[in-house]
Task: structure prediction
Amino acid sequence: MMTLFMVCFFVGLILTLLITLFGVDSFELHGDAGGAQGHGHVHGGPSVFNMSSLLAGVTVFGGMGYVLNKVGMTSALLVLLIAIAAGLVMGWLFFLLYAKVIYKHDDSMKESDFQLSGQLGKLTVPIIGEGIGEMVYVLQGTKRSISVRSENGESIAKGTKVVILNMSKGVATVMAFGD
Result:
């Protein structure tokens, strides 16, 4: 049993140090909840099962089990239960820290940031027949532009409000908004 506690403590400690030094905390268990248009992940907040919380729990589990054994606690079941409880509590505390402090200020781009279907904009360069024009739109408070072509090959005048239907090879297919 001591070997289990020592392995958990040292593996958890080493991996925690590596994550701290190299900033790799991308392991999160979450399911595909299907976004508003049937694709993408829901990113309402961090997962309880993030790497920092799991490693904190494993490290404390191993450390607590080792310490309880060294101070002379003889009941293996009691040592195991206390170590599990301590690991769960520490994992939960790390999750709270992660959710309230770290994740709150995380502005990393999400998969949904690249989904432009349904985005409204305005043509700045007209689309002439089968040709390509340009539209501007606002995404996350930033004005952006993209090359566009019309859905059916019809011309669309400059200044017309359009909606993106889909993307193909960096060019958006649009239709006039209101059709």
About this structure: The radius of gyration is 26 Å.
